[in-house]
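User: When convenient, might I ask for sequence and structure tokens for a protein?

AI:
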Amino acid sequence: MSDNNMQRAGAGIELTRQEKKEQKKREKEEKKKQKKANQTPMDPAKKKKIIKRSIFGGIAGVFVLFIIVSNISKANAKPMVYTAPVTRGDIEQTINTSGSVISGEVKTYFAPVSIQIGTIHVNAGETVGKGQPVLTYDETDLANEKRTAELKLQANEGSYKSSIQKNNESLGDLGEANVNLSVLEQQITDIDNYIKDLQRQVDEKKAALAHEGALLQISLIDWADQPDSDEYENLQKLVQLNTYEQTNNEQIRAWEEEIKTYTEMLNNCKEYKAEMKSQKTSAEGTKLNQGGKEELEAKNEMENIESRETLTAIQETESGILAEFDGVVTEMNAVEGKTPAVGEQLFKLESTENVKVSISISKYDLEKLKVGQKATVTIGGMVYDGEVSKIDKMATKNASGAAVVNADIKITNPDENIFLGVEAKISVSTSKSEGALLVPYSAVNSDMDGNFVYAVENGIIVKKPVQTGISSDLNIEILEGLGEGDQILTEVNGSIAEGMEVSAVPMQ
């Protein structure tokens, strides 16, 4: 059979089938008409009941169908995960803590003089400005002490001058004695030698006269047998003259008178020598040696310094004890009408210009903290600028027994709204990074191999090791392991595993 004939035959078959379907349709419509013609009208109540049953049945069918479809969908659905892209931005790492506001400058004032307190102008807990008096002294007692200090300084200077004068006199006496003794020694020696020489001449003259007399006596004896001779008479005269000369020789008398004069002179010299020796002994006992002179000068200088310091202290306190800086009097020990001893504590002043916050840092934050780092200080709703000014080099134990290191945050712009002792919140900026790759802090996980994140690539979970940098409360810096725009899981639970097919839902 040809192709055309086959097509015609097929068309005839299709036509016959169509006719049969139309015929069956006409027969069904005819039966419905006949059935409707034979039916009697339905009771309204019964009709309403049937309608309700039909509605409930339809709803039940839909519910069953929904359950069936849901189960089929669940069986074929992928787990849903929330992702966030890796972004670029700036990140700042901070240490957040709290501490107490304390003064960075504390000065304790002690009594410079022992003078009665007159009036206390600022009590404990009250503020005082720089240069204002905290307390003043009794005016009468102050004037008396000032005059006493002036007289003491004058008396000390007079005593020193007197000692120096006495020492100079002693040195003069000693010098005079030494010079005179040297001269006297020579004079005594010379006079003594001269007297001895005179005495030698007297002795020699007397010996010569005596010898001459002896010779005359011998000659007289020789002429004794001629008593009437001229020679005998001359010899008698010569003997008498010799005897007279031995007793009354003018030269001998002159020498003896000279001996007497020089002997008296010698005795005077010896007496003066004894006097000079006594003077020398006394001068040596009263003169100052080098050590004594240095001691006197040092003592005089110390007493002068003490007196001048007392006088200066009195003069400086004539207007009272003044505050050296703006601050709060935290302790007041002075009492009006009482006379404190020198060096007794009067009061304590704590600066409100130089204030800081004392904080405690754990070992985990210690490596991040450095002197000079900027900080934000919040006190009672007021925000101030701060800076890390000191980090202790020794750890202490806190109330929980943990080791902490104390540090100070200096407030660089304090004002009158700051109160010492109150609590302050501190946020220290420890590090910053600009244009860094950032991911949410919750996205980074850790295991034995280090830090990692779960990323979604083509609907598959991929585990990616990462190297992290600094972190904030929300984000963490990624140094290696990710690229900008990578989609990563923000939260991970126990059902997440590498290689899973998931349906990623970006977080808004």
